[in-house]
Design goal:
The protein is of the alpha+beta class. It contains three helices and four strands, in the order H-H-H-E-E-E-E.
Amino acid sequence: MDDLSVAHALWADQKRWTNDAIRVATEQLLSLKNGAWLDEKERPVSPDCFGKQLSLNEIAIEAGGTFAFYFDDGDLFFGHTIIVRGSLPHGFTDAGIAG
């Protein structure tokens, strides 16, 4: 599938793709947040609260039909960007934090 077709597919069902990206980010990063990224007086974050902190900044279509959703972390990770990667056939496959 070419890059433009991927972009059109994501646009056509953008709410579902964004919600899926938030779900995967929550599943893969919540334990990291609660295990290593809490301020001294901060309580563990619930899955619902984690997802509500994320705001989509950018979607990048990459070579070969893969894509990445970039989220503002809402200060969950002190201002780092959350990146969730995937493809149309496989959905989202991994999430991480960057810069």
